[in-house]
Design brief:
The protein is built from 11 helices and 17 strands. By secondary structure, the chain is an alpha/beta fold. It has one domain: NAD(P)-binding Rossmann-like Domain (Rossmann fold, 3-Layer(aba) Sandwich), CATH 3.40.50. Bound molecules: nicotinamide-adenine-dinucleotide.
Length: about 375
């Protein structure tokens, strides 16, 4: 039997959305692909803490079995394994929704080996989507990326590229292109969807944190250098047109990212469980509601949202904050800019705040680095 809880959904800020509705949130069964990876494991943990029932799928190509929280019903396999997907659906007939995180994420590798990225992030993902449709899944939440925007050409009065979801899509590497192609496939599918474009995900949730191999992300690289687990650390480019010459990024705490996934799941399930609305009917009802000047009830689904904080930090700022946290000087090197690295990548999170009710709780760069540091220390202690 299904358990339910009643929860208030708040549509924040815009007067049009200043309503509070009582919605019955059903505790759901949810399939999470990429559950052994950095973000997947933390999303699984968050879903479990909220008493949802989590089924995980991962081929362990870059993930780690020990990352998967114990309460996850884990299936080892590829997203293209149709027999396994059928087995999963047969064993969990109420399963209607998927959070799709499985994929490859290394930008530089995607430039060297574009086929690998198009194969996994687009072709295999498309086969997976076809299977979901055949198996009667209703909802998909997909992790896309800021890389779909490429090098933004639009700047605000401070010279900061402030990216909203309408910003021109012009990926400059196969990683971004493969993600963008899959966004389009989802939009053309029969599934209700929420697509998130993550900016720079960082931080940790206790013992679960970032552990890509090879690691290419700034904060774990910097922390490893500070912890003497790697021999060098360099800043790529100090001649950008930014206040200190180094590139500026929008870092989002992985725990806030996980909360956004809960909101997305709830938005999709209010629709699915209470009204069983198809994608087509939802857009029709929204249009009618807008014409009548009433609240478009389903406007928060079948949408793309940026996930970032709207605040950028330069590489040098990240180094300075880390030095203060560990009370130690970091003797970094300097290397030329990497091809295709924009000066600024900062999200406008306005749409997620307004439509989805996203309320960041960990938007402090010190908290992000501190949590990542704690995770790194634990990770290395575990290896001893
Ligand atoms: N980490 C970031 O900052 C960031 C930023 C933007 C977007 N994203 C997206 O978020 C998602 C998760 O990123 P992450 O940092 O957790 O990466 P990760 O490498 O830690 O996790 C990806 C997981 O997917 C699994 N996987 C890959 N291909 C698979 C397949 N064909 N079948 C089954 N499992 C497969 C891997 O084994 C791994 O466990 C990715 O899709 C990535 O593009 C991440």
């Amino acid at each position: 039997m299904k358990t339910t809880k009643t929860q208030e959904l708040k549509f924040a800020s815009s007067p049009m959305y200043k309503v509070t509705i009582q919605a019955k949130i059903v505790l759901v069964q949810i399939l999470v692909t990429g559950c052994a990876g950095y973000i997947g494991s933390i999303i699984c943990q968050t879903l479990i803490q909220e008493n949802h029932s989590v089924i995980g799928l991962d081929n362990l190509s870059t993930g780690f079995r020990e990352n998967i929280p114990q309460a996850v019903k884990f299936y080892e396999g590829d997203i293209t394994d149709t027999a396994l997907l059928k087995e999963i659906k047969d064993s969990h007939p109420e399963l209607n929704s998927v959070i799709h995180l499985a994929g490859f994420i290394e930008v530089a590798e995607s430039v060297k080996n574009p086929e690998k990225y198009f194969d996994n992030n687009f072709h295999k993902a498309k086969l997976f989507l076809d299977s979901l449709e055949k198996l009667n899944f209703k909802n998909i939440i997909f992790s896309s990326t800021a890389a779909v925007y490429g090098i933004p050409q639009e700047y605000d009065s401070n010279g900061t590229a402030y990216i909203n979801e309408e910003t021109t899509l012009a990926p400059i590497n196969p990683y971004g292109s493969s993600k963008l192609e899959f966004e389009k496939a989802i939009q053309a599918s029969t599934l209700n969807y929420i697509i998130f474009r993550f900016f720079n995900v960082a931080g940790a949730d206790g013992v679960l944190g970032e552990c890509h191999q090879p690691e290419t992300h700034l904060i774990p690289l910097l922390l490893d250098f500070a912890l003497e687990k790697r021999e060098d650390f360099s800043i790529y480019g100090n001649d950008y047109l930014t206040p200190d010459g180094t590139a500026i990024r929008d870092y989002i705490h992985v725990k806030d990212l996980a909360q956004a996934h809960l909101l997305a799941l709830e938005a999709l399930h209010v629709n699915l469980e209470n009204e069983n609305i198809t994608k087509h009917t939802a857009s029709l009802l929204n249009r009618m509601n807008r014409e009548n000047n009433s609240v478009p009830k389903f406007e928060n689904i079948n949408q793309i949202y940026n996930l970032g904080y709207g605040q950028g930090f330069s590489v040098k700022e990240i180094v300075n904050i880390t030095e203060k946290l560990i009370n130690q000087k970091i003797n970094y090197g300097l290397k030329p800019r990497r091809i295709g690295d924009p000066a600024y990548l900062v999200a406008s999170p306005e749409k997620a705040l307004r439509l989805l009710g996203f309320q960041p709780k960990f938007n402090s760069i010190e908290t992000i680095i501190k949590d990542a540091l704690e995770h790194r220390r634990t990770w290395y202690r575990r290896d001893q």
